[in-house]
């Protein structure tokens, strides 16, 4: 009898309906899920909003409380613009799908056994609560309580971002620093498209041709297409106003419009994490009775996108005694990052690469580089990237290269100076930027 009642309580704790959940309900739901699935989930707050609301993250996986060697970290972040609400709700339904399918659905079971998934339903809880009158286009709730746009608030690799860093932004920056995130997406509304790095640019990255290309452009195109092609309609590329169309439902961020201080570029440059921006609804804050359809439209894409964290190659860099070497640089030849990608405390690296042949260069500062040629298969179906370790026989544990972290000053300026930069006229741009600030 009492066992039956207990089970009933746990089930009802995790039951989720299709409507908007305000802060208290959202917190109650996440706590209910964690109570019902304590071995599969870990709930923590990574910081607080200006008004003191917790920034909750639910972590799901076979080892939810901590990083395990070889298991990549993945994240979804929604509602950084408080009035863009679809992502907030579909991430709650994604949590529901993951916990209820674990042990029943073989694909989701393998996904959770081999991936640590972090889900932040709202990065801007104050903005959501401030949006009293839902609107399809624009409300003040877009901003945080201090009136700042959180997606213009991160350090920028191309120009000095003068915005003062907000508590919500700081919390996310610290979170990125403390985890080995490999892949991520942030969920927005106001358009229907998957947008990818770079959002800002200069002549070196191709800004004069209207496309700001990262060294991993091929991977980003693949990631964006993975989402759009698995979405019910995004891949069709019909814009929201029939004027703007996005072939295959994807766009380079800069090609769509330039922005400074965006979160996806910050993840890629300083977080060693590939992030794309998902615009999920033409209407920013649609009526609640449409939420079920939005969930159905995105369900498959959300899962297929997570699987992409297993693309490419991963491994450990160790010394002659088999101890991990942190801060070793590991990159694929021909695609250097302005902040070289380095191993974590456990000496691990993860590089997202499409199937093909690559030369991987591992460098411990002060020692000879090691090069290994790898043939990368498509491993996403196996839920594990190709494994390639590096052992440095001449390095002993005494040597621990403490590397200063990558500078926060704009990194691409040096590159731009090297190529004779041509500056477009500012006046038309200001006008354009004002119009476009309404998106992303």
TrEMBL record:
Pfam families: CarboxypepD_reg (PF13620), Peptidase_M14 (PF00246). The keyword Signal applies. SMART domains: Zn_pept. Residues 1-15 form the signal peptide. Residues 19-309 form the Peptidase M14 domain. GO terms for cellular component: extracellular space. The active site is at residue 279. Keywords: Carboxypeptidase, Glycoprotein, Hydrolase, Protease, Signal. GO terms for biological process: peptide metabolic process; protein processing. The keyword Ion transport does not apply. SUPFAM superfamilies: Carboxypeptidase regulatory domain-like, Zn-dependent exopeptidases. CDD domains: M14_CPM, Peptidase_M14NE-CP-C_like. GO terms for molecular function: metallocarboxypeptidase activity; zinc ion binding. This is CBPM Carboxypeptidase. It comes from Tychaedon coryphoeus (Karoo scrub-robin). The gene is Cpm.
């Amino acid at each position: 009898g009492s066992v039956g009642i207990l089970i009933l309580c746990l089930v009802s704790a995790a039951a989720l309906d299709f409507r908007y959940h305000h802060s208290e309900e959202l917190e109650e739901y996440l706590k209910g899920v964690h109570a019902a699935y304590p071995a599969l989930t870990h709930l923590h707050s990574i910081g607080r909003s200006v008004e003191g609301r917790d920034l909750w993250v639910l972590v799901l996986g076979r080892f939810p409380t901590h990083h395990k060697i070889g298991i990549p970290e993945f994240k979804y972040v929604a509602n950084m613009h408080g009035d863009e609400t679809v992502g907030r709700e579909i991430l709650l339904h994604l949590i529901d799908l993951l916990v209820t399918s674990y042990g029943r659905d073989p694909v989701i079971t393998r996904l959770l056994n081999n991936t640590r998934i972090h889900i932040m339903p709202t990065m801007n809880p104050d903005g959501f609560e401030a949006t009293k009158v839902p609107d399809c286009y624009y409300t003040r709730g877009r901003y945080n309580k201090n009136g700042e746009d959180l997606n213009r608030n991160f350090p920028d690799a191309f120009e000095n971002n003068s915005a003062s860093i907000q508590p919500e932004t700081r919390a996310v920056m610290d979170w990125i620093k403390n985890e080995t995130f490999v892949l991520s997406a942030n969920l927005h509304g106001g358009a229907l498209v998957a947008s990818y790095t770079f959002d800002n640019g200069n002549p070196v990255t191709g800004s004069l041709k209207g496309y700001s290309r990262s060294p991993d452009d091929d991977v980003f195109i693949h990631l964006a297409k993975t989402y759009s092609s698995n979405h019910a309609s995004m891949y069709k590329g019909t814009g929201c106003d029939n004027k703007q169309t996005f072939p295959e439902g994807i766009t380079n961020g800069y090609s769509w419009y330039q922005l400074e201080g965006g979160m996806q570029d910050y993840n890629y440059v300083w977080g060693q994490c590939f992030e794309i921006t998902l615009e999920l609804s033409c209407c920013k804050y649609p009526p609640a009775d449409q939420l079920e359809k939005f969930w159905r439209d995105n369900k498959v894409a959300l899962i297929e996108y997570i699987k992409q964290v297993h693309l490419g190659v991963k491994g450990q860099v160790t010394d002659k005694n088999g101890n991990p070497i942190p801060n070793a640089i590991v990159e694929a030849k021909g695609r250097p990052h302005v902040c070289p990608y380095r191993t974590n405390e456990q000496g691990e690296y993860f590089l997202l690469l499409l199937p093909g042949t690559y030369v991987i260069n591992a460098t411990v500062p002060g020692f000879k580089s090691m090069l290994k040629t790898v043939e990368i298969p498509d491993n996403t179906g196996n839920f594990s990237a190709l494994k390639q370790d590096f052992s440095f026989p001449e390095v002993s544990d005494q040597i621990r290269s403490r590397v200063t972290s990558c500078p926060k000053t704009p990194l691409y300026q040096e590159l731009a100076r090297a190529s004779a930069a041509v500056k477009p006229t500012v006046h038309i741009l200001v006008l354009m930027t004002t119009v476009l600030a309404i998106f992303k």
